[in-house]
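Moderator note: this is an archived Q&A kept for reference. The question asked for a predicted structure of one protein chain; the sequence and the answer are reproduced below.
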Amino acid sequence: MTDTDATDTNTAAPEPAAPAEGTFSSLRIPTYRRLWLAGLFTFAAVAMQTTVRSFLAFDLTQRNSALGLVLLAMGVPMLIFTPVGGIAADRFPKRLVLVTSISMMWLPAAFVAGALLADRLEFWMLVGSSVLQGAAFSLMAPTRMAFSAELVGRERLTNAILLAQISMNGTRVLGPSIAGAVIGIETLGATAVYLAVAALLLVSIALAVSLPPGLPRATGSTRSPLGDLVDGLRYVRSTPPVLWPVLMGITVVATAFPYVAFLASLVDDVFDRSAEWLGFLSTTGAIGAVVSSLVIARRGTKDLGDHTVAVVAIAFGAFVVLLGVTPTIEAALLVVLLTGAANAAFQALNNSLVLLRAEEQYHGRVQSLQMLGFSAFGIFAAPLGAVADVIGLRTTLIVMGCFSMAAVIVLHLVILRTVPREHPGT
């Protein structure tokens, strides 16, 4: 097979002529490079929009509860539409799903920008924008991951996932900083941020349009979308090499990842520091995620399998426990750096194992199940917050980390007993 661009083909076949080694090897493939850039601009737009939307919500209402409502308006659609995103990724051309989902993000951003220009912005517009963004992200995320697997092939799959995480975590650092700086400029303000968000999403749409169609692998199915969902669940349940890593991903994200929701309380209630320290902690965690992704991408993953995933997951839980006993906020910076690094490494390695083991026609639905961990994270954060009010935040973090580590050990023992050695990554 020659090293040609797959843009004009009916399927998104990988291009194996590009070397499989190196930190950025997947970016040598033109089609994946366009997909990665589309994701980069989209993630940057989402990060900037999240920051400016929170600013406007408080500015309009002067109530902290308005911030929670805006976040809830994004989280609930993600829980509902995540399975839909997986079905769409396996049922329809992936290019169509990507263009549709990014367009769903652009429309409310352009609408809010117009309302700001006309000085007609109201709070309900921000809530509606959050709803559409949550639904759109649920469509985009599993499709983008499944598309990556098709474009780069099995040899570079983990590298592609790591590079995607680098773009996402990198924009988590830069996006809010840029948005905050622009908001602070009187002649620009929130209007300029929303105009920039709309422009970034237009670039993402143009890049997505240039991708190959990404036709579904399984054709001729007469099942309904609900039938596809049931079929995907039945497939995962009957395939232990896929089932147990999926459950591990959901469990770890749901039980350990909520630490990020408590960073503000850690800064204010535990360490009694100013709000700027929350920005320091959040940025430090994102930097740790980027660095660990770069290290793994450079090293390669040929020798990394179930054992490595379990070790990294246990380390993630241990760092959450350590955060609960850290005596100073300066020490917490180092712990959050390590926690972010372990979290990113676990997600990349576990996701790649699942995709390598799953049949290609199920990639979208399998990824949507993986994403349920983040929906569960949002659900678990509220009761965990109530628990923290009763037993204290430090104790809650310790319990979260210990529970996550125990769950990983149990699931890993099950994996060792049920996953045949011939499966990738064992």
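Archived answer notes: Residues 1-19 have pLDDT under 50 and may be disordered.
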